[in-house]
Write a structure and sequence with these properties.
By secondary structure, the protein is of the alpha+beta class. It is about 20% helix and about 35% strand. It is globular.
Amino acid sequence: MIIFNCIGICRLQISTAYTYISDISRILKDNIVMASFLDNTKGLLNTTLCYIENKGRYLMLHRIKKNDDPNKGKWVGIGGKLEKDESIEECMLREVYEETNLTLDNYTYRGCVDFKSDIYPEEIMHLFTAVSSSDLLPSECNEGILSWVDKSSISSLPMWEGDAVFFDLINKNSPFFYLTLNYHGDNLIDYDINYPAT
């Protein structure tokens, strides 16, 4: 796993046209799958997603407020799209603060998830987990309803099928992974997991 402190050990820089991942490239340079991934991220949608833990619970967002939301009705973690010249770490921290008012200093970069779909644009999601000592939440979130959910209850929530795959990897404390999820419509057709650092 690649662990960040509040300074940011591994900085992932985003330019307007190309995803430049210097330290990840160095660490994973001998892995053919990851090298190919890094070479083909130009122009793709890059996002972050963070699952924040507190007392055996994950902070989940029920996306029910926006009618044009592809995630409408589903429960997801906290995240969003990278902005111009923003690093992966900066994006994750900004999105978490904007949606939850939480400031994180204990978080781990767990893996990259490549979403491929016949109806949605391809998306590269950078997955984090974090631990928060606070469980105080804002009274309103414009993306949906925030709720702390027991880990044992996560699998019963309406979620994307592929989320169950990376939740399983997280719960098994898997090493840093590169996961490809192939969707037809809203249905997961198949997936592939690689462990670039091993």
